[in-house]
Amino acid sequence: MADAPDPGLKIGPRDTTIAFIQQLTIGLHHYVLARAALHASYNRPALMLSQQAIELLIKAIHRLENETPPNDHQLIRLIKNVKAPAPAYFEEILADGPKYEFLQLLSDAYLEPRYGEAGLEIRSGAILQNLDEIVFCLRKTWAEKIKWTRTPQIYVPVWLREPFLRDNRHFGSDDVTDNFMAVLLPLA
């Protein structure tokens, strides 16, 4: 009897010990891919990746407060539900009408149009500008909460560098690395 083919995937066991780093890392990877997808006009996947990037970064900050983040995809609710005292940047988002609206629309875009049943109007330049600023500030907030002396670099493979850095007002070449363990480097 022949062995069953390898499905190429195994899930588990569940361990939340380093979830605060894993969620940051995965969130930053989603952000890199969201930028590339927007530049390639893969708009629906780009919106899903953008929402997931921000969601995971917010949840990574929840983890730093020893909280298990709620199983929720609504970005504003995730920000409102962080344990007090909330990071200053969370308060800024809640008070900033355009950022608040962007996050609400991004939450809606994550769920509503992903099956192609709802229309979308995409202005990728505006999305990138909002996404870049919010991810930059969430990454900085995470690093400040953990008291790292510098914010972690983002792993961006060489072949994705150009779309990642193109028109990016918040991240430059010093913020990226081709070391996939970059987030962990400040621990050394």
Could you provide a short overview of the structure?
By secondary structure, the protein is mostly helical. It has helices at residues 19-39, 43-64, 75-80, 88-95, 97-111, 124-145, 158-165; strands at residues 154-155, 176-177. Helix 2 crosses helix 5.
Secondary structure elements and their pairing?
Blueprint: H1 19-39, H2 43-64, H3 75-80, H4 88-95, H5 97-111, H6 124-145, E1 154-155, H7 158-165, E2 176-177
Parallel strand pairs: 1-2
Helix pairs in contact: 1-2, 1-6, 2-5, 2-6
Characterise this structure.
The protein is mostly helical and 188 residues long. Helices cover 54% and strands 2% of the residues. The chain is built from seven helices and two strands; from the N terminus they run ααααααβαβ. The chain is globular.
Question: How much helicity do the residues have?
Answer: 40-55%
Secondary-structure class: mainly alpha
Strand adjacency order, main sheet: 1-2
Number of strands: 2
Number of helices: 7
Question: Approximately what portion of the residues adopt beta-strand conformation?
Answer: under 5%
Overall geometry: globular
Number of domains: 1
Unreliable runs? none
First-residue to last-residue Cα separation: 49 Å
Helix/strand order: HHHHHHEHE
CATH class: Mainly Alpha
CATH homologous superfamily heading:
Nucleotidyltransferases  domain 2
Rounded Rg:
17 Å
> Largest sheet at a glance?
2 strands, parallel
Q: In CATH terms, what is the fold-level topology?
A: Four Helix Bundle (Hemerythrin (Met), subunit A)
What is the CATH architecture descriptor?
Up-down Bundle
Mean pLDDT over the residues: 90
